[in-house]
Amino acid sequence: MAIAVSKVYLPVFAALRVGSSYEYLEMRFNPTIRSIASIMFVMDEIFFLPIILYVPAIAFSQVTGVNTHIVSGVICVICVFYTLIGGIKAVVHTDAWQIIVMFISVVIVVILGTIYADGFTDIFKTAADGGRIIFGNINPSPYERQSLWAVLIGGFFYWTSFNSVNQTMVQRYMSLPSLKKAQWSVAIFTIGIVLFISVCCFAGLLVYNFYRNCDPLTAGLISNDDQLLPVYVMQTVGNLHGIPGLFIAGVFGAALSSLSVVLNSTALVVLEDIVKGCFRFKLSEKSSAIVVKTCIVILGGIAVSLVFVLEKLSGILSVATSVTAIAAGTTCGLFTLGMLVPWSNPKGALAGAIAGAIMSGWISFGSQISFAKGDLVSQKLPISVADCPANMTLPDDTYYDESDVFPLYRLSFHWINPIGIASTILVGTVVSFLTGPTVVKKLDADVLSPVIHKFLPKECFPPSDSDSDLTRENTAQTLTHLLGNSTAGANTGAEIDSGEDNMGKGAKY
């Protein structure tokens, strides 16, 4: 993912110096394609917002007993409040501290859990004996939920589609002073996320080690799998003063950080790409501030409402991957079509976007509906209740015949994103050929990825004195209206230019 983002996508944004990633689609195709991608991005973030709220809500509820809907509402109000009042500066500064707290809390819980479990040896031996460490599942079936191919291929496309063209990431890259530093930020991000996810996976082994002989879901300690880590923390190190609070602070830090960034980026896209780009409204600075703040409040209300829907679904990871794959896969497919297929044209891009959205949406929502109806069940590993305090028996293993379920609905959630990307590129390329491909000689090489420059005719490389450095000017101009007070809007650009924002260095890296 890091190599693909740094070498394929990022140099294009650097050369064009865009403020919003979706500006590229207008440069490469037309305003209609830009509008479609912008609307899909907003839909994607709307689906993602309730997930951000629900995760800390169930953790807090597990620790305190407070209703999850009350917690999610409070989280949303707090984040919307400081985002509206403090603007970009508040989001950046709080982001930095929230991420630090998140890392510290998870690492401390893992360290204490390891000590409680008497060291690494016992943890890994128990996990191996219980069949929880599986690296070699090379089953080629796309119905296998967690095969080696599904994780590697699906994971590559999922992470690449988000980190390459999503506005929440591109605005960070563009806030850095040069292409080289932006590429370094991708490397730092990759190292950080690999370490963090590795720690989270190890936390999963700690949970299994503790509950290997008494499944908490069967025992009635929790009502769904997403409560496993919170209940583990309370039952192992919850007696240590401050640890439950630190754990909850870490979970809340991750939620507030993600929530504020999503609100920022979505408000930016609504203002710049939809209100101004799609509807061609010319707004004053004061009107722009009103649009942005209204958008944030509405998004917060939608997120809290959708939590009621999310709690009916099972498994945050698969739900998040499934619903976000719809827009992420299609949008990434559009950018890839534009950057890597020189002869693609606007008609092909439009057809590809429609095909990608239909395919990924069909699979995603179809599978979720099938799970909700009970036609599909999660493929779970064996559990035990041998050491549970009360006499319990595991339910009989029931064989579910899923052969009657539509094949696409049975696919592993890892394949939804690659299918969306592949559908967009394939249909877009074919339709472009059928409707008259773009004359490659008339294209500017800057709108195409440098990995294919050696295959382009010399007419694509007009003499230019521009360098490849990113610039803060566009970023400052684009973010001027973002969440700042109308009286402070003029200062936002200056703050960003003076280095106060440094979003790439602060929030997520």
Automatic annotation (TrEMBL):
BP GO terms, sorted: sodium ion transport
GO molecular function: symporter activity
Main location: membrane
Pfam families reported in the protein's UniProt record: SSF (PF00474)
UniProt-annotated stretches for the region Disordered: 483-509
Membrane topology note: Multi-pass membrane protein
Keyword match Cell membrane: yes
Residue ranges crossing the lipid bilayer per the database entry: 36-60, 66-85, 97-117, 147-165, 186-211, 246-270, 290-310, 316-337, 349-371, 415-434
Subcellular location: Cell membrane
Name of protein: Sodium-coupled monocarboxylate transporter 2 isoform X3
Organism, scientific name: Musca domestica (House fly)
Gene (UniProt): 101896677
